[in-house]
Amino acid sequence: MTGSHIIQQLQAAVPNLTASEFRGQTRVVVPVESIFDVLKTLKEKFAFDLLVDITCVDYLYYPDAENRFGLVYLLADAETGRRITVRCFVNDPEPTVPSVVGLWEGANWLEREVWDMFGVRFDGHPDLRRILLPEEFTAHPLRKDYPLQGRGERHNFPVITRAEG
Amino acid sequence: MAVTNVTGRGEAGPATIVELPEGVAVTKLDELVSWCRKNSLWPMPFATACCGIELMATGASRHDLARFGAEVFRFSPRQCDLMIVAGRVVMKMLPVLQRIWQQMPEPKWCISMGACASTGGVFDTYSVVQGIDRFLPVDVYAPGCPPRPEQLIQSIIDLQEKIQREDTIFCREFDAPSRQQPPRALRKEGREERGEGRGARG
What we know:
The structure holds two protein chains of two kinds.
Chain A: H1 3-13, E1 18-22, E2 25-29, H2 35-44, E3 50-58, E4 69-76, E5 83-90, E6 96-98, H3 107-118, E7 121-123
Parallel strand pairs in A: 2-5, 6-7
Antiparallel strand pairs in A: 1-2, 3-4, 4-5
Chain B: E1 2-5, E2 16-19, H1 29-38, E3 43-47, H2 51-59, E4 82-86, H3 94-103, E5 109-113, H4 114-119, E6 140-142, H5 149-165, H6 177-180, H7 188-194
Parallel strand pairs in B: 3-4, 4-5, 5-6
Antiparallel strand pairs in B: 1-2
Helix pairs in contact in B: 1-5, 2-5
């Protein structure tokens, strides 16, 4: 099954779906309402059984960007090695996408990382906590409006002097 | 060898000369204790990054830290008296580092190895602590990115000299002004020079 074949079938099932191919890579952009259905179809009907990565791009300050956050799902078929990229866009103030932990168990930590770094919520996630930063951290540091040097988190500690041991 | 023995009772009598037996030397107890301490350092390797590789090379056979009496790396802070912080320390790690430092028994010393541990290095970001001396007392800084084993050995030799100069009896080392200085970030003049308060920049 070629990439264009997949695109045709998906376009028949999902409205507002744009797709493109470049050098053998298939890219699909879907509206956030149908992202779960598309990923479920890709897994169950097109045998994309491996979730390679979930990541996010913050398009703030990006010229001609219409939406702020772009979620990126990278899927692969472990048997044939085919790959597909699925994207959807979400916006402030409460960027939320449905969780795909029900489809791939491995999505658990990937979604926690996106929540940690970008503050995108995943509806239906069983345990949406921070994964890299400490729990008391309040910001989402990979957002473009977060300063590179932070807001003082790195120096908010007690000082131990020699006399205190 | 002869020493002048002044009678201890404050009498104005003439000083007597005593001959020391062969094989006997006289020194200050401070000097002796410091000499024992400096030649038997037990490092606690707090290695978080590439400096840790050089730290391992320093302890290995080619450079052989055993020549300076500091080869016994222990991974329990309770058995160590020298903490070598090798590598960058992030904000999530710093409370751990402080806890390990507090678990080490006195007397104890700290070497900040490499650019990252000393200043944050190239990692001027939200998560990396810009020098562990902001929150911990540091005795010796080893420059380099990472420092070669020779450099680390040099800092251990420097630390040994520092230990030799310390008073030990009656725990006077804790009162010494050189050890009472607050960490760099807390010194008032330094803050004003850089135009920032503690953590104002980041």
